[in-house]
Structure formats: structure tokens, C-alpha cells
Amino acid sequence: MKPVAVFRHFPIEGPGYLATFLDAHAIPWRLVRIDAGEVLPASIGQFSGLVFMGGPMSVNDDLPWISPALALIRQALASDIPVLGHCLGGQLMAKALGGVVSRSPVKEFGWGEVSVADNPVAHEWFGDLSEFESFHWHGETFTLPAAATRLLSSRYCENQAFALGKHLAMQCHVEMTAEMVTAWCEAGSGETNAGSGPPVQSAEAMQQDLAKRVATLNQVAERLYVRWAAGLV
């Protein structure tokens, strides 16, 4: 199998549990460090799938790698190569497919419940799961591209995930590990210090019962990654 390309846009926003999943299932993968100046490939031909991770930037920023990333996503869909997006990655997918990414009326930072939509596509991805606690770290949101199906919503963000065939875009972060949560709390203290509850939690609140919360979220991620990986070419 050709490797899965995992695009990292910020040093502490790596693949997290996705790397654990890929290794456990003997799926080869290659980390493309956009944050370290690595250039995006011009073609998707060498990869079995594309994964875009998160980052503090906006897909509307004038950054040299954004247009090539959007082109890669469109190329992958045209070639039926599965694409997976986490937060910024989901926003890249939305924009590449005709959706609009804009500032969210409410920021979400920390743990919060998301509801699974009651439609056949959502049931294909989540089974009988109706809600779960995910991790959030975003100040922007996306609209649904044409033909996409909403999978998840939260109290503060209507579009938390969508699917389009074998392609999955998420606003929330299901890839988290305990180490990532801790690192984000340290790096993002300026944004979370003012938080005293939903939708912006304090670093202390984010790290309460951390091992248990992450383990539960890993189970959700496992389900999604299994479904997504089934489409790898």
C-alpha cells in the first residue's frame, strides 16, 4: 500500500492518536511538516490517502501552502483518494469543496459534548453512538459544501463534522492524546486563562480526569479511523 500523507501545520498539532492507529494497523504513513518548510507534493499519485491536521492559522490567511493544499484536496476527491481533516484540516476541506470558512460567533476551547446527527450517513460513521465528549480548540467555523452531509453538531457550533462519500472533515479534535492536551494548555494559556467554563475552559478544567477522557475519545477516533481507512486505495 502507498503511504498516507499526514500534513502537519504546527509543531504541537501532530497526528496524535491517528499515528497510533496507523501503526497498529500496519498502514504506512509519511509526515509532511508544513510548519518546518516542507513543500506539499504537486500530485497525490504517491499516496493512498491524505490527512490534514490542525493549526492556529486561518485557511483565509495569505500563506503560500494553502492554495496547493486546496488543490491537493480537489485532486484527491477527483481521484477517489480518501481525505481526512481535523479542525484546520476540516476547514481546508470545506473551503476546497466550495464551503465558506469564517469567524465563529463563539470560540470553543476544551472539552464539550457533540451530538451525532440522526441520518443514515452519520450512522455509517458512528454506529449507534448519539453523543460523546470531544476536544475543541477553534475560533472559526465552516459551512457545509454541496452534497456533504452533516455528522456532528455542538451547542456552540452547528457544523462539527461532515462526510462526502469516503471523505471526512471534522471541526473538533478526536486525535488528542494526554500529552497534546497538556502541550496545548501550556502554549495557549493566553487564550484559556480567561476561561471559567464552557465554551472556553481553563487549562485546569481541560486537564481534569484527562487520562479517562482521552481514553474514551480514543475509542471514538478508532471507530472513525477504521471507517475512513477502509477507503484507502
What does the model show?
With 233 residues, the chain is α/β, with parallel strands linked by helices. The chain has one domain (4-229): Rossmann fold (3-Layer(aba) Sandwich), CATH 3.40.50.880. The chain is 32% helix and 26% strand. It has 8 helices and 9 strands. A 9-stranded mixed beta sheet has the order 2-1-3-4-9-8-7-5-6, sandwiched between helices. Helix 1 (17-24) links the parallel strand 1 (4-8) and strand 2 (29-33). Helix 2 (66-78) packs across helix 3 (88-96).
- Beta strands, count: 9
Number of continuous helical runs: 8
Low-confidence segments, ≥5 residues, pLDDT <50? none
Q: Round the Cα radius of gyration to an integer and report it.
A: 16 Å
For the largest beta-sheet, the strand count, sense and barrel status come to: 9 strands, mixed
Q: What is the correct CATH architecture?
A: 3-Layer(aba) Sandwich
CATH topology: Rossmann fold
Strand content: 25-35%
Q: Which secondary-structure class do the elements indicate?
A: alpha/beta
> Could you tell me the mean pLDDT?
95
Order of helices and strands: EHEEHEHEHEEEEHHHH
CATH superfamily: Class I glutamine amidotransferase (GATase) domain
Broad CATH class: Alpha Beta
| Strand order in the sheet with the most strands | 2-1-3-4-9-8-7-5-6
Span of the ends, CA to CA: 7 Å
Provide the helix percentage: 25-40%
The rough form would be described as globular
Estimate nothing, just give the exact number of structural domains. 1
